[in-house]
Design goal:
Layout (H helix, E strand, L loop, with lengths): L36 E8 L2 E5 L3 E9 L10 E18 L4 E7 L2 E2 L6 E5 L9 H7 L10 E10 L10 E7 L7 H4 L2 E5 L13 E4 L2 E4 L10 H12 L5 E10 L9 E2 L1 E2 L6 E2 L4 E2 L2 E2 L4 E2 L16 H13 L3 E10 L45 H11 L7 E4 L2 E4 L8 H14 L5 E6 L2 H4 L9 H17 L4 E7 L20 H4 L6 E6 L13 H4 L8 H5 L10 E2 L3 H6 L3 E2 L16 H6 L24 E6 L34 H16 L22 E5 L5 H4 L23 E2 H11 L7 E5 L3 E2 L1 E4 L5 H12 L1 E6 L2 E6 L6 E3 L13 E5 L8 E7 L7 E7 L8 E9 L2 H17 L2 E7 L11 E6 L2 E12 L3 E7 L27 E5 L14 E5 L7 E5 L7 E6 L5 E4 L19 E3 L9 H5 L4 E7 L2 E7 L5 E5 L15 E4 L3 E2 L6 H4 L4 E6 L7 E6 L73 E2 L28
Parallel strand pairs: 10-13, 10-29, 13-20, 15-19, 20-23, 23-24, 24-25, 25-28, 31-35, 36-42, 38-40
Antiparallel strand pairs: 1-9, 1-33, 2-4, 3-4, 4-8, 5-6, 5-9, 7-8, 11-12, 11-16, 13-14, 17-18, 21-22, 26-27, 30-32, 33-40, 34-35, 37-41, 38-39, 41-44, 42-43, 43-44, 45-46, 46-55, 47-48, 47-56, 49-50, 49-54, 50-58, 51-52, 51-54, 52-53, 56-57
Length: 1250
Amino acid sequence: MVDSWIISSLAPTQRIEGARLDTLRITSATEGAVIPRLYGRMRMGGNIIWATDFREETKTTTQGGGKGGGGGKVKTTEYLYYASFAVALCEGPITGIGRIWADGKPMDLSGVTWRWYPGDEAQTADPFIAAKMGAASTPAYRGTAYVVFEELALSAYGNRLPQLSFEVFRPLADPDTAEGLTRAVTMIPASGEFTYATQAIRKTDGGAVQAENLNALAESTDMVEALDRLQAMAPAVQSVSLVVAWFGDDLRAGSCKVRPGVEVSAKSTTPASWAVNGVSRANAFLVSRDDQDRPVYGGTPADFAVVQAIQEMKARGLRVTFYPFILMDVPPGNTLPNPYSDNATEIGQPAFPWRGRITCSPAAGFAGTVDKTATAASQVAALFGAATPASFSVSGESVSWTGPSGDWGLRRMVLHYAHLCAAAGGVDAFLIGTEMPGLTTIRSSASTYPAVQAYRDLLADVRSILGPGTRIGYAADWSEYFGHQPGDGSGDVFFHLDPLWADSEIDFIGIDNYMPLSDWRDGFEHADAAEGWPAIYDRAYLQGNIAGGEGFDWFYTSASDRSAQVRTPITDGAAGKPWVFRYKDLRAWWSNAHYNRPGGVESGTPTAWAPESKPIWFTELGCPAIDRGTNQPNVFFDPKSSESFTPHFSRGWRDDAIQRAYLEATYLWWGEAANNLLSSVYGGRMVHVPECAAWTWDARPYPFFPALTDVWTDGANWRLGHWLTGRLGAVSLAALVRHLCLRAGLPESRVDVSGLWGAVEGYAITALESPRASITTLSRHFGFDAVETEGVIRFVMRGRASVATLAPDDLVAGREGDVLELTRGQETELPQALKWQVARADEDYDAALVEARRITVDTTRIASESFPMAVPPEEAERRCRRALMEAWVGRETAAFRLPPSRLALDPADAIRLAHDGRLVDLRLVSIADAEARGIEAVRQDRATYDLPPGDPRAASLTRAVVFGAPDAVLMDLPQLTEDQPEHRPFVAAHAVPWPGEMAVFRSPSTDGFELLTTAQSRARMGALVSDFYPGPTSRFDLGNALVVDLLTGTLESVTDLTLFGGANALAIESAPGVWEIVQASTAELLAPGRCGTESAMGNPAPAARRGCGRSCRRARRPGSCAASAAPKAPWAIRRPQARESWCWTRRSRPCRSLRLISASRGTGASAPRAARSATRPMSRRLLRPRASDCGRSPSPMSNSRGVAPARPAISPSAGRAGPARWRPTAGAGLRCRWPRSWRPTRSSSSTALP
């Protein structure tokens, strides 16, 4: 019978209207609305299910007044409104909520009280709602995920409820999906000075504040957000390996130093500074920079950040493995001798190589090698160093080095982290080393491996620090763990790591598992396709190569053999132990005694390894998300590195599906008891699956990493890399279809989804529709069929190989005598173009339009569809092209009849039909059984289902702005203008970014603050570059040079008349709290000691003292000079809400504004602001202009210090944005000006505090 579940192909005239993307974000309050069903991650609007009336709050502030202050008080009354409400999101249970948008912008949740409920069947009523409605009247909304906002301030939204939308996480973590199988992950990036910190760290530069680790959300650090998303998207994860890197600088073991590094040698951070092993930033190794002057690596994570990360993960109930890592900082163009050359005479080592290539010099296999000599042992000893557990000082959670300053060996690094892990409260597991085959295979004699013994010594010291409660291991490369077979013609076979594996202090055998699971090629005739495997993603195919295929059954002896697929069987001759040479034969290696074979002759005595004695952990397990990644999972794409490769026969395009297929196949294989032996020694399984850590999760949250390439330079590597962030948590197509079938009431035993692969990042069902309608939508998008066979509904991807070839003689003639009817549809009935709309999870779930189009066709029809799913645009474009090509190829249909002997054929099977001397590929779409089997089929082209993805599209994210505390200064200055009260001080504040307004409060104590004033623009502030000496007063100083680094902005040129009116007034702090007023006419004329501040001249005012242009605000202090001399009162300059945006100052100074001043007194002038450089500060130095440039003759006069005036020249860096460095200097005469190109901008930022 014809199966009613068969999903038809794209109909040319059909226009589908499903749930549209623009309906997913709207927050409504509709009774009887559909509760959406969400899978994966999507952005949802929701429905308001409960709300209170707005609460009104009246706030009255007072300005002015004060004893003796003059004038009356001004009272201002504000009406503030608050709302409490609940928003239903979707059917539960969900696992988390990520970003929240209000009116389309990221919502600042600082100070907002809100919480979310997962929507499970056990959730209880919200206590706030219960307090308002009464416990008996409050529903728990079981089965519905919802969010409650409590007293949300509405002033930022025009005193109305904003349109809210939420990033919702609801993965399908079924037992056979990557989300349900992954129980351990590694955590990178290993580098990044504050990446692992759970405390917000800000870089400060004179009021310019930049968040170091607040790149995803303003209120949550990157590490915390990454852990939240890990637990939301991979709820089965219970263990995390924290990877922390130092930097090696040479492939020669005897010359390599392993040191902590930093990105820049000078950086001010708050509230904590970088330090590792007691090494400060200024003394740390500086990582290399690329051709754009960017660090090629992040710095080593600060010790305090590592401690915070360990404690945070343990607080979440996660097991922690510490994973020390070495990044090789060997830049291109280096002049280091290459150990992998004869006599190590080749100059220049490969750029940024793998740490596993550290070896003796010259290396084994090259002329002049020191391998098998005592020199090799000395080189190994030099790399390890002489650190002992006693070489460190531990104080609380801080560990410092007390040994020799020049010892930068591996022991120092590993023992430091052993002490640090202990100080952090301990870890569950600790690795003493990772992937060092070039080191562990060095021999000091024919059979002695000094690095192995060095690791054993290190192991004992680590155990003495961490104690028996921590499991300790070594993470060997998959090509390293099982033995050393040098292939030098000697026939040597040594189980060189057995002394380490057998050591009583080693708890497990660590293997970084990147073994190949496929050998897939182009076309459909290569060896594996010829065996009948449908695709590289097929789970049975991949699992067949876990204990089979390359590295088990056969190997390639050369690159040419690989190209030709000439496979050489792995055998062992008379010895009969081929497992000795099989790196994939874990079961045989683990369960047998090991015998070394020096010279190819097996020893009569086994090694120290006891069979079945210790479990195996896959300390790394991963596959890159690149086409045919399972062919060679160990390679990675990183253009800066000499190790950058694509897998064998890869076409180099992104493929998330192969990464998922690799993980699922591997975890499921080792989860089967038949494949994973039970130890007779310790009673556990051979491979301890709960600690098999998938490589890798990133502490930089997706999608901000990889999108923010201005923050992280390795973002471009994510697309083809091993990262699970942004991929784990997507919905497996197989699991989604199975879930929909179960919702339709089908028993799981009647559903077979083994023929499906791939995933969708998010899928939303927002309308009342049947599961069949949902499956149909997925079928159009992915291209699969469904057929009922023997009572089981089987789903299969299209594009499979033919299962039978039919000749005309195999067909049954119809009543008219015809055996075959071929039909070709008209072009005008087919679409010329197909347009799909999907959501982009790598942005803000904005809609992305992809299009497929045929050029030379006789039709202009355009079909379009909006899919309520999140899909990478490049993948959506591939599927869109497939659908269009499928429609055009499928316009050729066939109808024929087959005898009952062909009962094995089912709908969705592919066949080949001989017709007119050619073979036509057909896909069966319908079978009607009677006395003969009536067949309907459509034309199929297998190449249609193997298309490249579209071009990658750059992501554009809306980033939250993070504000920090301003650089604020309170200044006791003279009265600068007549309309300013003479008894009030000034306050200047500077911050980058500037929040638009800065509020200034006052209080005589630490509470009860009163709003004093607000500053609408930032002050022009800077610091003296060099000492500034006293000079003449009430006239121009022709001898001093004043050089100031301005944080932002520039100064304008003024005429002498304007100068005498008080323009270009600068306040210079000559001593703490003592300010001198200086004026500058142009770039070279200086008037010091202005406005009665002669006594404030420093002798000198030292470099690094602050300077401020007149862009400050007069403060309202208590109203008399006597009151100003009262005990110091605290002042707070802040942007409201975030505590990190407050700064505090206490001041009590005499009232300079009441003193007699010089005859000419000044007023400030404003200047245009310059944009701050995004990379590093730039300088502008104004030199002395020549007299001819100033329009007058040189003067023979000497200045007050007897120095002849120099001929000044102006040399601005015109047009360059960034903080300006300006230099008013001495000059002849009084009529000089700034260059004409610098036009003044009158936007006063003067703020006299009222």
